[in-house]
Amino acid sequence: MKTKLTTFSLIISGLLFMSQNAFAADKPYAIAIHGGAGTISKANLTPEQRQAYKDKLKEAVDKGSKILEEGGDSLVAIQAAINILENSPLFNAGLGAVYTYDGGHELDAAIMDGKTMNAGAIAGVRHIAHPIDLALAVMNKSEHVMLSGAGAEEFALAQGFTLVPNSHFDTDARYQQLLDAREKLQAAAKSEQVASVKMQDLDYKFGTVGAVALDKKGNLAAGTSTGGMTAKRFGRIGDSPVIGAGTYAENGVCAVSATGHGEFFIRYLVAGDICAKVKYQQKSIIQAADEVINQRLITAGGSGGVIAVDQRGNIATPFNTEGMYRATRSNGEPAQVLIWQDE
Amino acid sequence: MKTKLTTFSLIISGLLFMSQNAFAADKPYAIAIHGGAGTISKANLTPEQRQAYKDKLKEAVDKGSKILEEGGDSLVAIQAAINILENSPLFNAGLGAVYTYDGGHELDAAIMDGKTMNAGAIAGVRHIAHPIDLALAVMNKSEHVMLSGAGAEEFALAQGFTLVPNSHFDTDARYQQLLDAREKLQAAAKSEQVASVKMQDLDYKFGTVGAVALDKKGNLAAGTSTGGMTAKRFGRIGDSPVIGAGTYAENGVCAVSATGHGEFFIRYLVAGDICAKVKYQQKSIIQAADEVINQRLITAGGSGGVIAVDQRGNIATPFNTEGMYRATRSNGEPAQVLIWQDE
């Protein structure tokens, strides 16, 4: 009898254990973040700089992961992670935004909710410390998707945002990059039209930041925030605030945030194309993202990378540049923080 | 002997005829244009107005078709057709652009070359008579894809464009629409936040114009030009200049130009999604466009339509509104000019 009881209780325990595991397996969660892709030379990054990047990426991914672990929304998790990167001068977003040709800063951002397919984006704002917050406000508080320039800031004021001076985004390191870029542009201008200068020949430090997440409720979200291209002119809008290019999320399919040479990401509809391959060709997120970044974009001459997460919490982080600052974390496992392919 | 010769020459003639036909069949060409979709009530359109719309649409589609027939490029054909619509006060593009909330005009446009996957787009310009021409210049003469606001006009000046005063776009009919829209917005504002007013509740005359074409060389192109939404605020950017939303072209797949409630077209990546269904699901352009416009968008609550052409010259013109001003012409056949489903 005792044996029978023990066997019985063992079976019950086993069933309980299995059902808990099944419960847990039904509720995966995952987050991936990036801090830009580009020609990140191992030789040019000191051990201290390397550590500083990795520490900040870890702080951001841990923050987002904790929110997800506690049952929070994917939108909340990605906003929190992006805010941390916007507050760091290491990345080309918020505080560390690059300079425009005219010596100012113009920031872009977008956020998308895979559950509702709602989205908010802003382009060319000059006085918003956390552009991702304004993108979220556009999504939640306006019936528009994309606002630009001074108009977007008028909306921000109406929503109670505090504007900061454009000099808030000034940093010595970025200013030096502007001077270098201007010099190269001016040298190139002597031989050809300024308008046709190949900006991609310049050594850009693409440092756009972004995050994608799957929460325990099964909701996907994606967000991207950037200062754009160093020495950009003419009110240039890159891929970050363009839904389907630099930012996209659709429940049941995937969430993507991109970084790189934005013009190529717009033309090739990078975020949307990755999700279309998952949705219509039943490709894995790994294969879909790899085909777009490492085949299609390379053929086209477009450099950069993406972070992507699918409905089951699988994460892809392909890039066709030397490096991409990134971190990932799934289901409470330790964070993976990487800059190059292998470290 | 004579019979044999005759038989022989008949066979030769037959082969020649077949090869000519095969030649012609290998070189189809087609163009479709639209002048906006919306609540176009048959009762509210006088016979004279109806004729005026149809005449202008026919003029535009004939112009584009002639260029294609003579072996011209699809890009040239769509630009010429769109210029005619931009010059007409009947449509919400160029001369007939609607008013912003503040009583001005801000125009958007985009163009995409399916052969090179190159694209040009402008958002929020105030002094460009033919926005599609500036979008083309952005594509051909800058290394950016999307320029906005005053910066885009600085680029235009550098390219030799002549700026026109914003009052160039003033028309009495559009001003009356602004007054009506403002009144409704202000009435709504008394009961709720201005920012959350449902703009879609207003009776917009969406009048965005666009064109898609396949030329004899097999190259697809798409273009869209618009004054946006009546009473738009905050530097709102709609779907027209967003590559993959309102405008998209890819050789071998399809070319799409959209018109309607732009926010939905951005969120659902309408032009890109139609092409993805053709490319990855091997759906016909008719089925792909119908699924997006008449199934997905209707479920989401997004109103509007598209014109689309595929690599063989098949044309789809679905819309989920009462009417859509449109005209199509393929392979020298007579133009089809329609406003409602059947007439």
Describe this structure in words.
- Two copies of one chain form a homodimer.
- In chain A, the strands form two sheets. In chain A, strands 4-3-2-6-5-1-12-13 form an eight-stranded mixed beta sheet. Chain A has a four-stranded antiparallel beta sheet with strand order 8-9-10-11.
- By secondary structure, chain A is of the alpha+beta class.
- Chain A contains nine helices and 13 strands.
- The first copy, chain A, is 40% helix and 21% strand.
- Chain A is globular.
- Chain A has a single domain (28-338), classed as (Glycosyl)asparaginase (Glutamine Phosphoribosylpyrophosphate, subunit 1, domain 1, 4-Layer Sandwich).
- At the A-B interface, β3, β4, α5, β7 and α7 of A face β3, β4, α5, β7 and α7 of B.
- β7 (236-237) of chain A pairs antiparallel with β4 (146-148) of chain B.
